[in-house]
Amino acid sequence: MIYHFASELTDDEISLLSLYLDEKHPCAPHFIFRGAEAVVLSCGMALNIPDSLNDKLIATYDTAGDYQLSSRHYKASTVTIPLRGITIGNGTDTALIAGPCSVEDATMIDSVADTMHREGLHILRAGCYKPRTSIYSFQGLGSVGIDMLLDIRQRYNLLICTEVCAISQLDDVLRVADIVQIGAKSMYDYDLLRACSQIDRPVLLKRHYGSRLEEFAKMAETLMVHGKENIILCERGIRTHETSTRFTLDLCGVEWLRRNLRLPIFADPSHAMGEAYGVEGLACAAMAQGVDGIMIETHPEPHKALSDSKQQLTLDQFRQLHGKLNTIAHAIGKQIL
């Protein structure tokens, strides 16, 4: 259930409401925050409201299930996320986010940024903190990489999307990130989700490869219960019985997410396919589907990449893909950002 109270509800009245609910419903977690239009209370069940606040209650929403604030049963329109000069989730634009898996050195990241700038694109993705399955694999440059992204951001006027893997990294990542990415392996990190729910930057949440769609939706709800709305969901492939590809890009799941949740949806064909040869086809399929954004990994010399070398496109391949995506976007009445 979601309850809207008049926006003029005082802090003392909010404290009274919270204490009352703690007493009357001690086993029912509830969340109260000041929204743009009202004071919002969300809970997994119907609640008794203090008589003294009944005249301040202006609306109730019976949103069944464990994802409520993100549900289209609560609000039908998709959340829009304004960034410097662009808007994500407006229904007419698709953001093309591209860059290497990892920042490796200044020359490499400059080459990618220059390509993005020349292509008229706005958002560069690159990892500085890289928790790898093997502890012996390249783990990222950390703060050194963040400094390189800061330089790129300033010189090319690009927006930066980069991953945070632990609360201890968050302050460093916020030095440069216009979009903070929570990777698939961190989707179930409740402490990290709670920490990111308190920041003002947009958060891009990637779906864990073993999660069901409703589990993914519940993790998004964890980000939203303190009032955060600038959240992007990213489908990046799930693990199935098939072993010929790294994962399976769940475009059926994208449709379910778009139907049921009011958050912008991105697709990441690079991680789903795991091989460069299939990225173009999957990206074109996602574009034809009309997703809000597509994430592509690209590298000046993929065979020399220190992480995910097989799935990264060369810069020439990326430019060709951008052209094909533009054609599809035009055909469905959208444009590439």
What does this molecule look like?
It is a single chain. 32% of the residues lie in helices and 19% in strands. By secondary structure, it is of the alpha/beta class. Helix 4 links the parallel strand 9 and strand 10 (179-182). The protein folds into two domains: 2-61; 81-336, TIM Barrel (Alpha-Beta Barrel), CATH 3.20.20.70. The model has no long low-confidence stretch (mean pLDDT 95). The strands form three sheets. The protein has an eight-stranded parallel barrel, surrounded by six helices. The longest helix is centred in the C-terminal third of the chain and has 17 residues, at 315-331. It has helices spanning 11-24, 106-118, 143-156, 170-173, 190-196, 213-224, 251-260, 269-273, 279-289, 315-331, and strands spanning 2-5, 30-34, 39-43, 57-61, 81-83, 86-88, 93-99, 123-125, 159-164, 179-182, 203-206, 231-235, 265-267, 293-297, 335-336.
